[in-house]
Design brief:
five-stranded parallel sheet, alpha/beta, 4 domains, single chain, about 575 residues
Length: about 575
């Protein structure tokens, strides 16, 4: 409908350019907004006001000229000029009904853009270090990132999901050593786990598993460990243990602990996310950047551009030349690349893969990291505008009005799996999607589990299930619904029906706006509005008792509402149950 209106206005403005009212070279962007009040029509545009300055005309006078130049079309029944020059459009009643035919024809793809018609986009999200289970903070990033990928796809883009596996560097060495120490303990070696190691029960389990598999093969006397750490501060002592483990166990031996820890946790993460409805096209290994030489290639490119310098034996990147607060080390004085060097190579690789846009979904604590990554792309001669970083705040859980501080099972944090077990994946995803990603979020566990109208997810899903029940009852009464797509939609003339028709028409616009603004919460707001409107409608009419013509029209409207509820829930990765 908006496309048809746009075509009419473009023709009118083309005529005004021919008449030299509007400069021929001026590019005109006509925007339509749905009106909030019925007496203002169906749509309004401020195009006369935006053209007033280049046309050197009074906006209201220009509005009159635009209206006079509009081609005759049965879509528009009335045009008003309001205020300083708003053009209000009243549409034919038949235009309101056309959405029903469209929904019947398009079904599961109603509201979705043409596939492969726009950009090639990569969305990288979660990317938690494989050093432990996913927690509820990762859950919010997972729900947001996946919903965003679905919305961008629904808007017609080609989207790939990627998980960046941080399987290199010191944190992974710490994890491997943590497992090794638990293995030593399982072999009755008297050694305490340092405070800066990983302490979860999952690490204990892996140590015991390796003790059962390898017995005493990888033992080192506790005295040797004590000597290596003697007189050292906490972090230095841990580095000494890592060095000792690598030297005593050798590359092959150390990799026994490293590989088990990495693969076990990564498999757990994959399973956790898949059960949450999140699947990836690519799991990108940080270690592959070392093995392929991409880190070294990125550093060499920075050297060639003059953007790095030597200082105190380390190699520094001049990020201050690109607006960062200070320069950053890319190669340490021991010759090892930093995490930042890996990130530079990774983002270089992203853009070299030909994406029109690379979206990173990061925790809000990474805000300060954005300028230096953008700086590295600029220094490499790449378009930093192709990188979009979206930040996600962590969620705070509440149960019984009290903040949930600890998990009763892990003793450390509330895992995503525990959250899913308690409230279900649908509720978790819907509640996560309700807020802007950068907003603080309080997650009420009791509300998420409740089967009441106060629970927004239940309220929306119940609207879908309620419509399914209407059709089940019709079948039980042997009412034929096979031809409702051809019902006389003119029977739909109540205020409730008009509201629902308008909401159905808005769905494609909501999907596009949510995609343009990277805001999945717009879908949840829309679904709540549609569910509210349908529940109100349901409470005022008796669908199956009406005369045949009216009944079939109401059933057609109900079917369209059910379809759009299903499509909208699917876009945010939430199910649409047929019964509740």
């Amino acid at each position: 409908m908006k496309d048809q209106l746009l075509s009419l206005f473009e023709q009118a403005i083309a005529q005004l350019k021919t008449d030299k009212v509007v400069p021929v070279e001026h590019e005109v962007n006509v925007q339509f907004e749905r009106t909030r009040q019925k007496d203002h029509g169906d749509f309004a545009t401020n195009v006369a006001m935006t053209l007033a300055k280049p046309a050197r005309r009074n906006p209201r006078e220009l509005a009159e000229l635009i209206v006079a130049a509009l081609p005759q079309d049965s879509l528009i029944t009335k045009v008003d000029i309001a205020g300083p020059g708003f053009i209000n459009l009243f549409l034919a009643q038949d235009a309101r009904y056309s959405v029903l035919s469209t929904v019947f024809a398009q079904g599961d793809v109603y509201g979705l853009g043409e596939p492969n018609s726009k950009q090639k986009i990569m969305v990288e999200f979660v990317s938690a270090n494989p050093t432990g289970p996913l927690h509820v903070g990762h859950g919010r990033g997972a729900a947001y990132g996946d919903a965003l990928a679905r919305i961008l796809t629904a808007a017609g883009n080609t989207v790939e999901r990627e998980y960046y596996v941080n399987d290199a560097g010191r944190q992974m060495d710490i994890l491997a050593v943590s497992v090794w120490i638990r293995y030593l303990q399982a072999n009755d070696v008297a050694i305490e786990l340092p405070d800066n190691c990983y302490k979860g029960d999952y690490v204990v389990g892996m140590g015991q598993q390796l003790q059962q598999q390898h017995g005493a093969t990888y033992l080192v006397p506790s005295e040797q460990l004590e000597q290596a750490c003697a007189g050292l501060e906490l972090e230095e002592a841990l580095d000494a243990i890592i060095s000792l483990a690598k030297n005593q166990l050798g590359t092959e031996g150390f990799d026994v602990f490293f590989a088990l820890a990495l693969n076990s946790i990564l498999d757990d993460i994959r399973q956790d996310l898949s059960e949450f409805g999140v699947d990836y096209d690519t799991w990108f290994s940080e270690r592959s950047l070392f093995d392929s030489g991409k880190i070294q290639r990125a550093i060499e490119k920075l050297k060639a551009s003059g953007d790095v310098y030597d200082k105190d034996g380390a190699l520094w990147f001049k990020t201050t030349d690109y607006g960062d607060e200070k320069d950053r080390v890319v190669v340490r004085d021991n010759g090892q690349p930093t995490y930042f060097a890996s990130d530079i190579a990774y983002h270089m690789d992203k853009l070299e893969r030909g994406f029109d846009l690379a979206i990173n979904v990061w925790g809000s604590d990474h805000h300060g990291y954005i300028p230096r990554v953008k700086a590295s792309l600029q220094a490499l001669g790449l378009d930093s505008d192709k990188l979009k970083v979206l930040l996600v705040q962590f969620a705070v859980l509440y149960r019984g009005g009290e903040k949930v501080g600890m998990s009763t099972r892990s003793g450390e944090f509330v895992t995503l799996r525990e959250l899913r077990d308690e409230v279900g994946s649908d509720a978790a995803r819907f509640f996560y999607a309700q807020r802007k990603s950068e907003q603080h979020m309080d997650f009420d566990l009791d509300l998420a589990k409740s089967q009441s109208n106060d629970n927004p997810m239940y309220y929306v899903q119940y609207a879908h299930a309620r419509i399914c029940r209407i059709f089940d009852t019709a079948a039980e009464r042997e009412i034929d619904t096979s031809d409702i797509a051809n019902a006389n939609f003119a029977e739909l003339d109540s205020d409730h029906e008009s509201t629902l028709l308008t909401l159905l028409q808005r769905f494609p616009e909501i999907v596009q706006t949510a995609a343009n603004n990277y805001e999945p919460h717009q879908i949840t707001y829309y679904l709540r509005d549609l569910a509210t409107a349908f529940h109100s409608y349901y409470n005022t009419v008796k669908f199956l008792e009406a005369e045949t013509a009216q009944r079939n029209a109401m059933l057609a409207l109900s079917h369209a509402c059910r379809q759009v509820l299903k499509n909208g829930l699917g876009i945010i990765g939430v199910g649409a149950p047929n019964s509740m």
